[in-house]
Amino acid sequence: MLQKVEGIVIRTTDYGESNKILTLYTRELGKIGVMARGAKRPKSRLSSISQLFTHGQYVFQKTSGLGVLNQGEIISSFRDLRADIFLTAYSAYIVELLDKLTEQNEKNPYLFEFLYQTFHFIDEGYDYEILTRIFEIKMLRVAGVGLHVDGCTHCGANEGEFSFSVKEGGFLCHCCLHVDNKTLKISAATAKLLRLFYYFELNRLGSISVKQETKIQLKQIVEEYYDEYSGLHLKSKRFLNQLDKMNID
């Protein structure tokens, strides 16, 4: 049985001398695996459609196990995203995070659209660091981890200055800091962006201008939160941290 899907390549694995196994995140079926026979050969008609991050239409033979890719047509290759080592590294982290937090054949059209929009904005030159933070924060729900950003997690106060408590899963006001002696001090801008990124739809994204200090706070919060609750250890994240350190140096 032939099936046609719209998908983005989130992982590729070499198989034998000339084949590839593609992991696609699709609009219609969620995450699926397909065999692309001969895709490693430069002249193969499946070569271009089998590249990491490629967005396209895929026709495959559906079986009880791994599908077999018959043909494909590129919708977007995200060329600019591929041309820059930082954009490529951040995108690799995004797809690995998605891969680790999703199961096979779980339909989620919203998540597909979210991935596509993230890549589209990165490819268009929007701030890739902030887009990655947005992706991480949104994926917390997929991971089954909540985030309390509507006010103080302890007393409910929704005005004033807040710190962030990994232990409590969100904001603590200045009156409730005794609940956690390891809170992260954050600016009003950081608190506002955390709340915004957790709730807003990415297709409403306008221009992005975030101070470096705020970026650093957002990154620290998200990293510590994932370290505490996700149990993930991603190869792409280690490489990303190395690149960021080189960029700072």
UniProtKB/TrEMBL annotation:
- Respond yes or no to whether keyword DNA repair is given for this record: yes
Question: What UniProt keywords are attached to this protein's entry?
Answer: DNA damage, DNA recombination, DNA repair
Instruction: Indicate yes or no for the key word DNA repair.
Output: yes
Described by its record, this protein's role is as follows: Involved in DNA repair and RecF pathway recombination.
The record, for NCBIfam families, names: reco
Q: What is the lineage of its organism?
A: Bacteria, Bacillati, Bacillota, Bacilli, Bacillales
Provide an example Pfam family for this protein.
RecO_N
Q: Name one process (GO BP) from the record.
A: double-strand break repair
Q: What is this protein called?
A: DNA repair protein RecO
Give the matching HAMAP family. RecO
Q: Which family does it belong to?
A: Belongs to the RecO family.
The record, for SUPFAM superfamilies, names: ArfGap/RecO-like zinc finger (SSF57863), Nucleic acid-binding proteins (SSF50249)
User: The DNA replication/recombination mediator RecO N-terminal domain covers which part of the protein?
Assistant: 1-78
GO cellular component annotations of the record? bacterial nucleoid
